[in-house]
Amino acid sequence: MSGYARIDSVDSLRMFRGVLVKFAEVAQVSLADAEGEMQRVLMWLETEASTYWSGQIRKRHENVEKCKDAVRQKKLFKSPTGSTQSAVEEEKQLRIAQKRLEEAEEKLKNVKRYTPRLQKEISIYKGGVQRLSTTVSADIPVAISRLDRMTAALEAYAALSMSGGGADDSGQLFAQMAKAMGEDVDAGPDYRPMRQKTANVDRKAATPGDVRLVTWADGGLPEQERELFSKIATDRKIPKPEDLVIVEQGAWENSKIYMERVNFEDGDSGWFLGKAEDGPSMGNISMSIADLLQSRTDLTEILTLGPGFLLTIDATGVTAVLDEKGKEVWAGIIKT
Questions:
Q1: What does the angle CA 256 – CA 261 – CA 263 come to, to the nearest 5 degrees?
Q2: Are residues 118 and 216 in the same domain?
Q3: 326 and 193 both lie in a single domain
Q4: How far is CA 310 from CA 258, 278, 323, in A?
Q5: Are 206 and 129 contained in the same domain?
Q6: pLDDT tens-digit profile of 7-48?
Q7: 317 lies in a domain?
Q8: What is the 8-class DSSP label of residue 137?
Q9: How far is CA 61 from the centre of its chain?
């Protein structure tokens, strides 16, 4: 690791996590409110305001014509004494009507002028808050997941210290803590036994099985981790719903599992799902991709990875992803 951190209280991490979650919630609500208010004003300008002032122009124009006719009538007909009647009051009403008509016309011009300006300002605003929006919707959930792993690793370390754990346990825990914090460690896990187990599987000898009603001990992947799989640069090989997948008997009872995809042929996805720990195998069962996804919808994005990919999953989520060249890529994805 690049340095050391002094952690006096794991509760402080939990408190920080809670504040981070609250900030994300408030920020999301604020962004949504701002978006809704902008759209409301824009819709008001484009519909209600435009319709209202168009109607006012029509009504006020009719009133101007009435006032003009009143002035004309007053000047046309003489008084009972035979003198020309004064049209001062009618002309005053005409000027008021004309002024109100000009006001309505100016209002409609403003509505038409400010509508595209508001649209432009909304686009500028969206561009300005895009980074914040991405941080709130994607980066913060990933950070929260890392905090959870760090907290779990620190608690496990504290428990190990109190119980006097051995050097091997300490080394393994150090690796887990480094991984939780996105750091590389020199001695990584050995995935060769998993590769060998997959290579030894007789896929055609697997008996048909069904895991749609079983409960998986690893707990499944959080939504934010599922979204991260789109960042893995590779050619996707989406299996058909009817393609077969091989599952090691009892793998769902283990808190740590692994998945590996080998070269596939028609009707076979090439995927194998087994126990990550060493131990005797109780055999394998086969089922369709569709049946597996009824039990594990969280594996949808994983199943699109191509042959050669291997990944491990435990109760904290994905712990490693090896690409077709054997390179561990998951730590880099989390950092980004």
A1: 160
A2: no
A3: yes
A4: 7, 16, 7
A5: no
A6: 667 788 888 888 989 998 999 899 999 989 999 999 998 889
A7: yes
A8: I
A9: 53
